[in-house]
Amino acid sequence: MSVEQVPFITLNRFEDGFRDTFLEGVAKLFDNTQFVGGPVVGEVEQKLSKQTGAKYVVGCANGTDAIQIALRAVGVDKNDVVLVPDMTFWATFEAVVNVGANPATVDVNRETLHWDVETFTSAIEKFKPKAAIMVHLYGWGCPDTMLIRKAAKDAGVILIEDGAQCYGTKVDGESILGSAYISTTSFYPAKVLGASGDAGAIFTNDEKLSVVCRQLVNHGRTDHYSHGLIGWNSRIGAYESLFLNLSLDHIDARLESRRKAVDYYVKHLEGLPLKIVTSKDHVHENGYCSVGLIDPALRPALIESLKAAKVGYGTIYPGAMSLQSGAKDHLVGKIDFGNAHYISQAVLNLPCFAYITEEELKYVVDVVKKHFQK
Ligand SMILES: *Cc1c(COP(=O)(O)O)cnc(C)c1O
Questions:
Q1: Hey, which bits of 65-123 come out as E strands?
Q2: Pocket of ligand 1 (CB under 6 A)
Q3: Which one in 61, 246, 249, 361 has a CA-CA gap of 20 to 30 Å to 354?
């Protein structure tokens, strides 16, 4: 069958038998009225721990809650300053405000699209923050991860890592989620490791932190009707846990297929005004998305060609955090070189999802090439 359109992402590609296995599992959970909690939650937490190398994993309701829980667990409190990248998903900024703290945005590097240690260090001097949230975007890892971890430690700044997009990504051979002091992820269905609904998790190697996280996700419970903390209801659902559990058995194949798609674009779109960029060599990305940069003046016409050929696209993300209208009442300061804003105008993401076919990739590449031949 010839390809006539390619979506930006689709959630309908699963391994043979996945659907039936999941639905059989759902029927069992239903019959046992296991809707929240139960053994399936412990099973998926254990599997996540084994795969990432993080000693403790606490499942929760979504990736935004995971950040909020991590912030609270490390002791971020009212009016504390927390650094966040100027280029990230809004949830990172939101989480800081939701725990009563004050975000300061720190610009990213125009080339690596992530924080660099020099800017990070100057932000620590300028804002004297209690904590910082390093974000790993696009399925890459921040190339300065190890340097930033050390700089934060040396300065006594608590570092939380928002790994909503980096399940399976490694820096210097180490799982980002597993080697961080405390990290978080999202299992929103469109992420690399998606669930059958909203879900998230917190990862840490610190036992005490893990205990506090577990209390915070469940009403600050110390036992059933004793509440030692003001927490949330951020429990992970049983169906979501089952779905994740089954997905984890296929994660290697899914990531491999995504990485192949990213490589395909790199290989076949060389030398065009849309420059496909990837992570640095010491980062092993998970293939979450393809990232292209193009002169902002040329982007609208390319988007028109993609639309006309029914090729989906993304602009992750279309605006800097410090420029969001919701930011102005909360932002306590910023380091702004204009990089996040530039990236938001220059970025273009091509279709990328698990089990995208070579025919689909070729279709996308042909549309892009043809556009620039005009
Ligand atoms: C998706 C995402 C989140 C939020 O996760 P939800 O599960 O949607 O709450 C936070 N940070 C980043 C970088 C994300 O991509």
A1: 81-85, 102-106
A2: 62-64, 88-89, 91-92, 135, 162, 164-165, 186, 188, 198, 200
A3: 61
